Amino acid sequence: MLTSLRRGILAGAVGGLLAGAFGYLLATPLMDHAVDLEAARQKALGEHSVETFTRNTQHLGFLGATLLVGIALGILFAVVHRLVREDGENPWGAAIRLGAGAFFALSLVPFLRYPANPPGVGDSATIEGRSHLWTVTLVIGLVGAVAAGLLARRLRERSPSTRHLAVAAALIATVALTFVLPDNTDEITAPVSLVWNFRVLSLATLLLLWGGLAATYGLLEERAHRTLPGTTADAPPPERVRESAAG
After folding, report:
1. What's the rounded Cα separation, in Å, for the pair 92 and 216?
2. How do residues 137-178 score in pLDDT, each as one tens digit?
3. How far apart are the C-alpha atoms of 189 and 182, rounded to whole Å?
4. The domain containing residue 144 runs over which residues?
5. Under 8 Å between Cβ of 169 and 16
6. Same domain, 157 and 168
7. pLDDT at 121 over 50
8. How many domains does the chain divide into?
């Protein structure tokens, strides 16, 4: 388990660095623009806000936060991967499927119902209610992803088309269930292009985080699996076995 946790830490760091670098280069300029627009709006209304941290400090904090979040998720990923991977299952495939499920449950489902907004968008008075609704979408996404995974295992003896269609139906039903929740009625005052560019880049950052984490962990697990004693990587070639038997 300790070896798996070390791999999870390394994989999480890789995913966090990829996501942090991508977000720093592409998403933070949009955040800065949104902050400038909000500051100009407040100034026009005669309001004043105090900047606790400078922009550079905030940018470094973003990089540090994505790295730490990636490491924390990597540890959790390693534990879950060890619990759900069946004996004989390819570790690379298991890691990719787990990463895809985590991205769906923890990133895509909340995004489809309550997409992220740049700074300054949304009423501060409703933030608690919006946070609760967002948490509910996380729970729905997790339950739906787990149900889809269990359904895929139950139907493993069926044809691939039947299994894939059943899993797709479960995932679609999961997303549809989130639309029972109330809409976000906060007014969006920022330009629509800025808001949607920020949303798409935020989702892409999360995709890089989970993709980098899952791919790195899968490669590390596969490499370790190949070098374990008794695996096919250590078995002698058939010709040598035949020669030994003949001798």
Report:
1. 9
2. 999 999 999 999 999 889 888 888 999 999 999 999 999 999
3. 20
4. 122-187
5. no
6. yes
7. yes
8. 2
